[in-house]
User: Fold these one by one.
Assistant:
Number 1:
Amino acid sequence: MLRRASNALIFAAILAIFTAPVRADDRIEIFDAHLHYNWEPKPFYSLDQVLALFREHRVTGIVATSRPNDGTRALVAAKPEGLWVVPFIRPYRVRADIQSWFSDPVIFDLVQEEFKRGYYRGIGEFHISGRAAAGDWVKRTVDFAVVNDLFLHAHADAEAVEILMGHNPKARIVWAHTGFSLETERVAAILTKYPQVFGELSYRGGIVDGGGKLTAEWRGLFTRFPDRFLLGSDTWINERWASYGEIMAGYRAWLAQLPKEVAEKIANGNAKRLFGR
Ligand SMILES: [Zn+2]
C-alpha cells in the first residue's frame, strides 16, 4: 500500500515537471546583421542545425549572405518559423572574388541577375579599401543599390566609406566591423556626417576592457548614437560557427551594462527599423 502510494507521488511529480509552464526566455533577443552561410559546396552546419543554433541562442533575425548565394537561397526557402531572414546578395562566387569584384563586370552581372529573385534587401558583404572604391563598377553597384532600395554591406576603411557615400549620397551602408580599431572620434565623425551609415560591430575592438567592462568611449558612442549600431557574428570561417554561442554571450555581456532601451536598439530594434517594411 505504502509502495503504491509512493509510486503515485513519483508519478505526480513527473507529471508536474512535464506540464509546468515553460519559463520565459529573458535573454535579450538578437538580430545577427553579419552572417555568412557559406555553401562551398556544402555548409558547415546543415540547415536544420543552423536553425537550431539560432533558436538556442535566441537569434530571431539575420542578414543572410552566402558565398556563393546558394546558402542564402536555402535560408529564404526554408521560411523558418521564428526567424526573420533578410537576404543580401553576395557579390562573390569564390573566395578569390574578394580581391577583384570591384573591377569585374561579371560580378555586376551576377548582382543584377541575383536581384531578379525579388526578395533581396542589400548587396554585400563586400570588401573594399581606399581608392579602390572610386572605380566605375563600384559606383554602378552603389547606384544600383540606391535605385533598387538596397543596403550596402561594406567591409571598408574610412576612406572607402567616404568614397562610397560620394558616389551617391542616398546610399545606405551597413558598415561591417565599424572600422575595426579606428578611433572612436573618427567613427563619431562618420556617423555624424552620414546619417545613413550604420555600424555593425563584429570584430570591433575597444568596446570592452580586459575585464569585460564596457569602455567609457564606447558607452559614450552607444548613448550618443543609439540608433546607429547593429550586432553580427561574421561566420566567415567554420570556427565562427563553432563559437557562435560565445559570440552572442559576449554581446549580451556588454549589452547588459547599457540602459535597457539602448541595449534593445542595438540588439534588435535598429535592425527591425532598418529592414522592416
Ligand atoms: Zn563578413
Number 2:
Amino acid sequence: MNILGISCYYHDSAAAVLVDGVLIAASEEERFTRKKHDYSYPEHAINFCLEKAGLTAADLDYVVFYEKPLLKFERILQTTLSTFPRSWAVFGEAMVAWFDEKLWIKSQLQTKIGVKPEQILFVEHHLSHAASSMFCSPFEEAAVLTIDGVGEWTTATIGSATADWNGGGGSQISLSRELRFPHSVGLLYSAFTAYLGFRVNSGEYKVMGMAPYGEPKYMDEVYKVAKVDGDGGLTLDMSYFSYHYSPKNSFSSKFEELFGPRRAPESDFFSLTTHPKKDHPDWDDRVAVQNQKYADIAASIQRVTEEIVLKMAQAAHKESGGSKNLVMAGGVALNSVANGRVMREGPFENVYIQPAAGDSGGAVGAALYAYHVVLGQPRKFVMDHAYWGADYSLAEMKSAIKASGFECVEFDDDDRLLDEVTDTLLDQKVIGFYRGRYEWGPRALGHRSIIADPRREAMKEIVNTKIKFREPFRPFAPVVMEERAHEYFTTPDLEKQYPPRYMLMVSDIPEDKWDKIEAVCHNGTGRMQTVREEWNSGYYNLIKKFDEATGVPVLLNTSYNLRGEPIVNTPQEALNTFAASDIDQLVMGPFLVKKPEGYVATGSHLDEDQVD
Ligand SMILES: [Fe+2]
C-alpha cells in the first residue's frame, strides 16, 4: 500500500511517502525551491518522494493532508470577526489566501496529483504531530505531548498512544486534553522573538541562543502576560498581544510598556557578557546595557517556556497512567534546551522526538496516522536516522565538480581520504562534508555539514565571518562519538536516547571540558549530536581520527549553507557554496575537492544586508 503525506500552506511545506508502512523518502520543499521555510504546495518534494519510491501517482492508494482546512478556516473567521474592526487587515489578507488556494485543497490535490476524491484523507494538525513522533518511535505505548504555535484551533495537546506491531487495530492516539487558540506557548515565544528583533517562525533559535547570555530577571513580567497553571495550562492576557488581529505585529503597545521598547531588527548584539573586554568594534556602554536587558528578557521567556513544557510533561505522564515513555512533537519540541530539561527532570525514562518535529513533520505523521489508525495496519517502521532526502550518483558529483573547475582527487580508500581531511582540520581549516541522502528536518547531521576543529574559541569567529555570515552569539554545535558522549556532557544515558542523535537537546558540559571544546561550548552548554559507527561510518571515523590525533572525540558541526539560504541539496549547490565561501576543502562522496592557492571566495562581497 502506497501513501503520500503532505504538509503545506503555513510554514515549511513537505512531502513523505510510505510503502507498506515503511518510510521511503521525506523532504521539505525549501531544499528544491531554495526558498527558506517555503510553505507553498510541495510539488518538487512530492515528485522526489514518488521517484525515490519508484511510484507514479497512479500507484498511490491514499494522499493524506496534515490538517483539516475547514476547521482552520473556521478559526480564522471566528477570530478575525470577534476582533473586527481591529482585524480588518489580517481578515483581508487571510480571505485572499484562503479563497485563492487553501479552501480548495481537496480539489487541488485531485488535479495536481491526479487521484480520486475518495483517496484523499485529512488528519487533524495535532494528531499528525503526535503520529509523526509515536509511529516513528520504538515504543509500543507512550505519553504524548504536542506543542506548537497553532494548528486548526489547538495549540498544545497531552494524551497517550499505543502502537501495535501485530495489526488488529491496536494503534491508537488519544489526545485527551488540549490548549486552544489564542492561548499558545509557540505564539507566546514568537511574540518575544519579534520583540527581540528576529523573524517569527525562523528566529526562535536566536532567542534560545541569546538566552544563556542573560539572567531570567523578567520572569514575573512574563507570568503577568501568561498565567500558567499546575499542568502547564496557559491563559494569555490578550491585551498584551496583537497576533489575533494584526497581520504584521505579534505584541501590542502595552507589551512594550511592560518590557520597554523593542530591539531594532537584526541590530548588532554585544554586552558585557558577550564582550567582557568591551572589544566589539561598535562598543557603546549605553547600548551594551540595553542589550543586556534584551538578553535577560530572552533568558526569562526561555525559562518560562521550559517551566511550561516540564509541567505539561508531568501532566502527560499522569494522563498516560504513568508511562515511562514520552513522544513529543510540534515546533516547541525543537526547543532543545527545554527538551534537555524534560529528559533530565521529567518523569520519563525514554523520550522520542523525530528530527522534523515542526510542521514539515506533519507530512510523515499524517501518512502514518492514516496507515495505522484509519486503516488499522500493523507497524513496520522505526525512524532510526534522519537521512530521508535526495542523494546523487558518482557521475552527477563528478560532472558537477568538473563544471566547477576545482581540482579534485578521487579516493578508493575512505581511510586515506579521512586521514587527509583530519590533517586539514588540524591545520585550523574548514571542511564541507557532503555525502549520501540529505537530512529530514532543520538540522544538518553529517550529510550536508560544515566541519571544523572545536578546540579553540577562534574557530567560531572563522566559521562565522568567513562562511556563515551570522550573528556571533549563535552557538555552533558539537558532534561526538556516542560512546564518548558521557565524558563531555553531563546528561546521563545519552547513548540510550534519540534526541541527541538528532541534535534536539542541550546538555551541560562538565567544567573541566570547557577549555577542551571552546568553539562549541555555549556558556557551559552544548547542543550535541551523538554518532554511532553503524549509522554513519565516514562521519564517525572522521571524529575518531580527530580523537586519535588530539584526544578530543568531538568536532564542530554546522549546516552546509550560507546565511539566509536553505541547506544545500545538489552537488552543484554544494560547489556553489564552496566557491562563494571560505570553506577550504570539500568532501563529496569519495572525492576531495580543493581550492587553488590564493583563491578568493566569489561571495566574499556578501554583507549582512544582502543575506537574510
Ligand atoms: Fe504545528
Number 3:
Amino acid sequence: MKLNLNSKDFDNVDQIGDNHIGTSSDTPIRKDAFRLNSDEKIEIIIDDVRHIMETLGLDLSDDSLSGTPKRVAKMFVNEIFSGLDPKNKPKASTFENKYNYDEMLVEKNITVYSTCEHHLLPIVGRAHVAYISNGTVVGLSKMNRIVDYYAKRPQVQERLTIQIVRELQSVLNTKDVACVIDAKHLCVNSRGIRDIESSTVTSEFGGKFKNKEVRQEFLNYIQIETKS
Ligand SMILES: [Zn+2]
C-alpha cells in the first residue's frame, strides 16, 4: 500500500498509527532545510523544548530541569539528527583492490543507534554490511561511518537499510552490496504494544546478492560468533 502523504496533513496520523509505514527511500527533507545554520537551529529548538516541557506542567526553574531544553536541542542538531546535514556525510575515500580479493567482504555487528521518525524514540541494533569488490575497496571503518551517518536521522528501518546500500553502491561503484539490520524499536518495546523481546529485521540485497547462494553465504557469515 502506498500512502500519499502531505506533511501538513495531520489527519493521517491515526491512519498510520503504530504501523510504521515509510513513504519513500529518501528522507523527506524540506527545500529550506539548510537555510538556518546549526547554531540558529539550536536556539529555536531550545524554545520549542521549553514550550513542550512547560505545557506538560514542568517547572523549568528547578535546577534539574533548567538545562534540559538546551541539552536536548544540542543533542538533536549535533548528535542524534546530525545525519540530516550532508556536510556530515563521511568522505568517500576508496582504494584500489590490490590484493585481488574477489570474495565478499562482510562487516558485521555494526552498532546502530537511530531514532524512529514516527515517535522520536530510539532504534537500537546491529547492521551487517557486505560487498563484493569490482576493483574498488573502502576502509572497514568507512562502512561503520556510513551506517552511523544514515542512522543519525529520524528514520524508518527499511529506509535506513536501503540508504546504506545505495551509498555503498555509489562509493564502491558496484551493485553488489547487501545490508541486514536487526534492531529493537523502543516505541514497540517500551510503549504501545510493550513487547520488550521483539526486534525487527530488514534486508536489502543488490546485484549478485540477489542470487540465492551468494545471499546465503552472507547470511551464514553473519551468524558466525566472533570471539576476541
Ligand atoms: Zn515508532
Number 4:
Amino acid sequence: MRIAIVGGTGTFGRALAQRWLREDHEIVIGSRDRERAERQAAVIGAAGGTNAEAVQGADLVVLAVQSGAAVETARQLEREIGSTPVLCVASDLLVTRDGVYPGRNEGSIAEDIAAIVDGPVVSGFQALPAAQLALPKLLDEDVLVCGDHAETKALVLELGQALVSGRAVDAGPLANARALEGMTAVIVHVNRTYKIVAGLRLTGFE
Ligand SMILES: NC(=O)c1ccc[n+]([C@@H]2O[C@H](COP(=O)([O-])OP(=O)(O)OC[C@H]3O[C@@H](n4cnc5c(N)ncnc54)[C@H](OP(=O)(O)O)[C@@H]3O)[C@@H](O)[C@H]2O)c1
C-alpha cells in the first residue's frame, strides 16, 4: 500500500513511517519543505516530497502535522487529496500549568477535516506514544480507530494492528473522535503527573 504521511518529518509521522516500512508498505514523507522531507525520508528508506506531492497517488493519507495545523493543512491539500481516504491522528489540547485540557468544547478535528475533504476520514492512534512507536518492539496497548466508512476503518485497523501487541479496536462512528481526541488530554496529563508513558488497554474481550 502507498501511504502518504503529511507532516511525516515530525516525531509521530516518522515513527509510523518506520513501522510501516517494515511491513513492506511504500511510504512517502511529506513536508512543507521538500528538502527536509527528502533528507529525512532518505534516512529511513522512504520517498519524500512536499505535502502536495506526497499525497499524489496515495492509497491512504495520514495527516500527521502538528494538531493545530491539521484542519488548515487539509484545506490546503483538499484538491490533491481528492477522494483518497484520510487518517487523522490529531488531538486539540490545551496545556496549562494546572493541567492538560481538551482544546475544544464540541466536535473534533477529524470531523472538521471530514467536512473539507471528499474522501472518507477515520480518526485514531491518538494514544500511541511516538517515542515507543519508533522502537522495534510492538506497543503493549490497544489501538482505537473510529470512522463512518467501514472499508477505510478496516484498512486503518489492519495498519494499526501492525503497531501493537494488543488489539486494534473499532471505536465506532467518526463522532467518537471527540472522545479519542479528548482522551489524549487525559493521557498527556497522566504522563506529566506520574512521569510515565501511559497507554490504553480495553478489558472484557476474553
Ligand atoms: N507525538 C506523539 O507521541 C503523538 C502520539 C499520537 C498522535 N500524535 C499526533 O500526531 C500529530 C503529529 O505529532 P508530532 O508530535 O509528530 O508533531 P510535530 O513534530 O510537532 O509536527 C509534525 C510536523 O508538522 C509540521 N508542521 C508544524 N507546524 C505546521 C504548520 N503550521 N502547518 C503545516 N505543517 C506544520 C512540521 O512539518 P514540516 O515543518 O516539515 O512541514 C512537523 O514536522 C499531531 O496531530 C499529534 O497530536 C502525536
